[in-house]
Amino acid sequence: MIVNCAVYRQGQKLGDIPIADISDYVVQRDCFVWVAVRDPDREELEALQVEFGLHDLAVEDAHRGHQRPKIEEYGSALFIVVRTVELEADEADLHIGEVAIFVGTNYVLSVRRGTRHGFTDLRERSEREPELLQHGPAYVLYALLDTVVDRYFPVLSTLVDEAEALEERIFSGQTTRAQIEALYGLKRKLAQLKNAASPMLEVTGKLHGGRVPAQCAGLQDYFRDVHDHVVRLDQQIDDLRDMVTTAVSVNLSLITLQENEVTKRLASYAALIAVPTLIVGIYGMNFDHMPELRCQ
């Protein structure tokens, strides 16, 4: 479905337009069109492809989804894929979505799949800052990437809290099978977050260093800021994964120690019983006056 389709001039919104009018505005040098769609079908994507002149391969990737985060150039257009990671308070698993972003000289098209939270707040904030929005599609791309990356941090913070809670339970003596399963579940969620965040290093790196795409020229400082956030996030994920791996090892070691303590107790009980058992075994049946002990 079409979430929003608007045209802007010099950072100011001119108004919402129908899809059929997009091609009339993208040819105007002082305008750009910002379109957002959610879970579109093939017909909607094909209509947008005609209006924007999108490349067939990029449209196919956006339609199929399940792409690895990446950045590709098709002539004068950019095609970027990023993953969204969401975690609700009442859920145990991460929710992974995807955003495909088409960026041209005078347009930005974002295609969301499987995401729960959109970018309405981002659009409203950008429209309140026309001095930034007048940078055109490149600034919108920066704002989208920055929002996606910023939304990773609350998820990571929740996983850190979960790891600390599990760690406390480990050292309080609650070293159970469920504890190990919880640690492995946390490790799986960290791997999902890592798979979403790490490829962003390559995406953001190409937008501020080396041969910067023409659409992004002049905004390298903004994209460098996003890249720095991704670097910090990636390092924190690695540190937390190491901590969880250590916690698993410690948990298993504590279980082994507990089993050894139980074995020692059983051995001590057996030693206490051994002496009386020995005495009974030697003397217990040595009675001179047992009936029928001797034959007459």
Secondary structure layout plus pairing:
Elements: E1 2-9, E2 12-16, H1 22-26, E3 31-38, H2 42-52, H3 56-64, E4 70-74, E5 77-86, E6 95-104, E7 107-113, H4 120-127, H5 130-133, H6 137-150, H7 152-171, H8 177-197, H9 199-205, H10 220-283
Parallel strand pairs: 3-7
Antiparallel strand pairs: 1-2, 1-3, 4-5, 5-6, 6-7
Helix pairs in contact: 2-3, 6-10, 7-8, 7-10, 8-10, 9-10
Structural class by helix and strand composition: alpha+beta
DSSP strand content: 15-25%
Portion of residues within helices: 55-70%
Uncertain regions spanning at least 5 consecutive residues: none
Oligomeric state, counting identical vs distinct chains: single chain
Shape: elongated
Structure description:
This protein has 296 residues and is an alpha+beta fold. The protein is built from 10 helices and 7 strands. The chain has helices at 22-26, 42-52, 56-64, 120-127, 130-133, 137-150, 152-171, 177-197, 199-205, 220-283; strands at residues 2-9, 12-16, 31-38, 70-74, 77-86, 95-104, 107-113. Helix 8 packs antiparallel against helix 10. The chain is elongated, with a radius of gyration of 32 Å. The model has no long low-confidence stretch (mean pLDDT 84).
Briefly say what this structure is.
By secondary structure, the protein is an alpha+beta fold. It has a single domain (2-251), classed as Beta Polymerase, domain 2, CATH 3.30.460.
Summary keywords:
single chain, 296 residues, alpha+beta, Beta Polymerase, domain 2, seven-stranded mixed β-sheet, 7 strands, 55% helix, elongated
